[in-house]
Amino acid sequence: MGVEVLHVEANGMTFYVERRGFGPVIVLVPAGNNDCGPLKKVAEILAKDFTAVTFDMRGGTRSMPPEDVHVTPKLLADDIAGIVKALGYEKVTLYGCSSGGQAVLAAGKYHPEIVKNIIAYEAALQAETPIPMIGLEYFKTVNGSFGPLCKGFSPMDIYFMCDWNKWKETIDEETEERIRKNTEYWNQWYLGTVDSENYFEEDLAGLKINFCVGAWTPAWMPASNIKVANRLHAPYTWMPAGHFPEIICPEILAEHIKNVTL
Asked: Are strands 13-20 and 51-55 parallel, antiparallel or unpaired?
């Protein structure tokens, strides 16, 4: 299945967008790597039955904003809504992981007119962790302890990626270099603000929402998502993966997205 590369004007900037397939529209929102490259396999599978749209989030090397600002869920929601409307779509299914999970939930809150379904995989919900700010403390501790020992990779690659071989099979050198630069941008302009939204029933009333969590991920992240899922009376699904199921189990993830969408 071929890919159509688009440069879409939305919310005051130009976004790098990839589109595959035909049928009901699914928009796949990247995690904090801000690059749609890791979602390629999932998009290709879904393109057999759907229109699969992916894009680089603001701050990705191919979607640089004219001005750098601290990124909030509301800003990302406006980006998603702008892209969806610029492409001429109405109601779409939104999938997002981590920062992207926050983004798709915020899109449901602020732009419900574009939403058919929401699938959030381990959304960045720091305010909902069992112990306040435990996620940031976890990053600080693990990176500080093991960072100096890691050569050619980071502690995050272990506790989020989980399978280095599959990462290398999925991500080419060009994409990996983009992600390295994107991560620097994320640390400066996303960290501490992209996880600033909480969600309650009245925020997402009437929307079909499904949460997903990884069985390999540190407990605080699934716990925060399960807490919000229960509060919203939304189902949640366990995946045999860490924080990036598009790398570890793309076929299982694509099948789940397909089942929720149909």
From this structure: antiparallel
